[in-house]
Design a protein that fits this description.
The protein is α+β, with helices and mostly antiparallel strands and 245 residues long. The chain has a domain of 61 residues. 19% of the residues lie in helices and 39% in strands. The chain contains three helices and 14 strands. The strands form two sheets. The chain has a twelve-stranded antiparallel sheet with strand order 1-2-5-6-7-8-9-10-11-12-13-14, with no helix packed on it. A hairpin with a 5-residue loop joins strand 5 and strand 6. The longest helix is centred in the N-terminal third of the chain and has 24 residues. It is globular, with a radius of gyration of 29 Å. The N terminus is likely disordered.
Length: 245
């Protein structure tokens, strides 16, 4: 005859403690192991986050509502997400450094707008190499831009901009905005240096600009098929042209 009823709480409590002590470490060890690989023929998903072992983002693929806003060292800043369907890339510090975005829709009036872009950002700054397509109901341009940017931390730059925007309207705010848009240590905030593409006039062109972002040399084949080479001064005036006239 049993001295203790195995169904009694007095028996079950120490048994449960012993079982937890034995099985718990095994469960933790299994949890720490790498998850098994999966193979799928097809999946529907609204967002995929690619992360490092420590949780830092490396890439986010998402639809529009679940798209991510700007991230700096793992912290959101600038503006909220929800408007950038596509793929956003992040560097080793968890800061956004480029991406692939796309959009296109037709309005109730029948007119459409479409765009797409593939960009690479300067470290802790904005895009400096970008391929873009923009289309406003048939008025379209597309091209590759290579740009210079001042060595200004983008989070500090956005914080400065937001402080100015919050100022009451008036001369002080206007002056602050003008200063904000100006060069930093003699370097423009952003200066396009090379553009290769097709503009809204249907001309194919290569434009080379100076460090201030001012076009100085243009190679153009117009919509009429005629080629030309233009040299420009710092004010944008054509100083020489081939063929002449």
């Amino acid at each position: 005859m049993a001295l203790v009823n195995p169904d009694s709480p007095r028996f079950l409590k120490p048994y449960a403690v012993l079982l937890t002590a034995l099985v718990g470490p095994l469960g933790m060890a299994a949890w720490r192991q790498e998850a098994p690989r999966g193979r799928f023929s097809e999946i529907d998903v609204e967002r995929i986050n690619i992360v490092e072992p420590d949780g830092k983002l490396r890439m986010v693929l998402s639809n529009r509502p679940r798209s991510i806003g700007p991230i700096y060292q793992g912290e959101p800043f600038g503006y909220a997400g929800g408007n950038r369907p596509g793929i956003i890339f992040f560097n080793d510090e968890g800061t956004e450094n480029g991406g692939l975005t796309f959009a296109g829709r037709r309005g109730a009036d029948g007119r459409y707008e479409a765009s797409s872009g593939f960009s690479f950002d300067q470290f802790n700054q904005d895009q400096v190499v970008f391929l873009q397509y923009n289309d406003r109901n048939g008025r379209r341009n597309m091209g590759l831009t290579i740009a210079d940017r001042a060595d200004v931390d983008i989070r500090e730059l956005i914080a400065e901009r937001d402080r100015i925007v919050a100022l009451p309207d008036g001369p002080e705010k206007i002056a602050a905005l003008e200063k904000f848009r100006g060069p930093r240590d003699g370097v423009p905030l952003m200066a396009p240096r090379v553009w290769v593409g097709r503009d809204e006039s249907k001309a194919a062109s290569v434009t080379l600009s100076d460090p201030e972002g001012r076009p100085r040399l243009r190679l153009v084949v117009g919509a009429d098929g005629e080629p030309r080479i233009e040299l420009l001064d710092a004010t944008g005036q054509v100083t020489a042209r081939l063929p002449e006239g």
